[in-house]
Amino acid sequence: MTAPLVEMRDMVKSFGGIKAVDHVSIDLYPGEVVGVLGHNGAGKSVLMKMLSGALPRDGGEIYINGEKAEIDNPRDARNYKIETIYQYLALADNLDAASNLFLGRELISQTGFVDDALMEAETRKILARLNPNFRRFHTPVSGLSGGQRQSVAIARAVYFNAKILIMDEPTAALGVQETQMVAELIEQLKSEGIGILLIDHDIHQVKMLCDRANVMKNGQLVGTVKVDEVSEDDMLGMIIAGKCPPNAIPGPGALQNA
Ligand SMILES: Nc1ncnc2c1ncn2[C@@H]1O[C@H](COP(=O)(O)OP(=O)(O)O)[C@@H](O)[C@H]1O
Ligand SMILES: [Mg+2]
């Protein structure tokens, strides 16, 4: 057995008296899409922010490829090739695709200037791979569809060789067709061996896109399932009642004596 790409062990985070994440352990293998499900406030985003270095953790350990990782800030996370894509597409509206792709990480020519031509060429290359229909390279991203914006955000992560992609509700703001486009992108990244942690409240989508899913409730892990082995109702029962079906691996948050 190879070591997991990511293993979060016993992660803890409190805000005042609220245990936002309460001793949660989850893992992710290369080329795997692992869902994180749960009601609003369950602790999904806080758990992911501890992995991306956006929030300091109170307790727990993170292992990357079997080795203990020191992730204390977003820069550390990037060094481990962890990238995050948020629901509210964190792009600069007035800039075009290339400028967004390289924002804060601009390519510099040998003469010491920002190399716009090279950045555009690189942007064309990566978008040709991710979204061959993308044509609007000189449009501010505010003028793009939600799906096109999301492909720019994903290109940004992939260009910098993300091995671990955190997607926090990537389709929440998208229509049906755009959601389909993001689903196709996820399939493609998976086939390239990238591991994806997918936060999503759409059980149907999780069943389609994910290999395994973790359910959180009140900061605790209810359990982990292989999505092919459970029904949508099973997952709903975990989310709502904390009730694990027989083939789930129960966590500390599982309803006892179910
Ligand atoms: N920066 C913060 N400061 C204080 N409380 C927070 C902060 N971020 C999240 N919380 C609280 O932590 C809990 C888990 O939040 P979150 O992880 O965002 O939930 P979700 O599962 O909806 O993503 C909630 O009670 C939320 O109000
Ligand atoms: Mg959230």
From TrEMBL:
Q: Name one Pfam family in it.
A: ABC_tran
Taxonomic lineage from the root: Bacteria, Pseudomonadati, Pseudomonadota, Alphaproteobacteria, Hyphomicrobiales
Q: Which keywords belong to this entry?
A: ATP-binding, Membrane, Nucleotide-binding, Repeat, Sugar transport, Transport
Q: What is this protein called?
A: Monosaccharide ABC transporter ATP-binding protein (CUT2 family)
Q: Which residues form the ABC transporter domain?
A: 6-243
Organism encoding this protein: Hoeflea halophila
Query: Entry's InterPro entries?
Result: AAA+_ATPase, ABC_carbohydrate_import_ATPase, ABC_transporter-like_ATP-bd, P-loop_NTPase
GO MF annotation terms: ATP binding; ATP hydrolysis activity
